Amino acid sequence: MNLSGSVVLITGASKGIGKALAITLSKAGAHLALVARSEQELKALQEEIQALGGKAEIYVGSVADEVFVKASVQATVQVYGKLDAVVNNAGFGVFKQASDISVQEWDEIYETNVKGTFLFCREALPHMKQASKGHLVNIASDVAKRVFDGGSLYCSSKYAQDAFSMALRKEVRKDGIKVSVVYSGLVDTYFHQRTQGDPHQAKYLSAQDMADTIAYILAAPDHVVIDELMIHPMAQEY
Q1: Which position among 59, 154, 159, 183 bears the catalytic label?
Q2: Which domains does the chain have, with CATH numbers?
Q3: Full-model pTM
């Protein structure tokens, strides 16, 4: 896999899938822009990548903050001269009965899972259109295609993220820009209120499984686009 010289911005990069993806892409030669809320974790990741001989800029802030998103995308282009791909990986879930969901919880989920994806796509598009190429990879979930009891908030946010991605794909294909959506099942990360590596998650997909999958999508030849990819551990029924 060779992504030498490609510039990739990753949200939710400080741990889990985002961290594994950053290291994987750096080893493949990509230059990185890493976005997350935790400055300490981002700095540690930046140092790890630099120790491997890679390049990584870090941007600390919320993906739902329009000013921050504009600034981080612009800074990335200023540093590297271009932006080839954005991986919208930042996201989280709240799982409870609809009658127990607060307005604050509703807003926070949609701010991160939907608005954040929208903002980074919107800000990246002018640069990609100017280059007549680019790749937007949105990390959704298998619950963008199904629902479950207690999932009304999270599922609806992922349905919205997916619908945005599908419509966007139709808008920008003529501009040479790819839009890919990854629908993952259970992944061994911090998402499930357990620590990564918890024995209860031993049969889940690993963060590295996801990183390898996303890297494969990004490394496809220019004439190939993987529009959608559904991935599960064998232990999970779908």
Answers
A1: 154
A2: 7-231 (3.40.50.720)
A3: 0.94
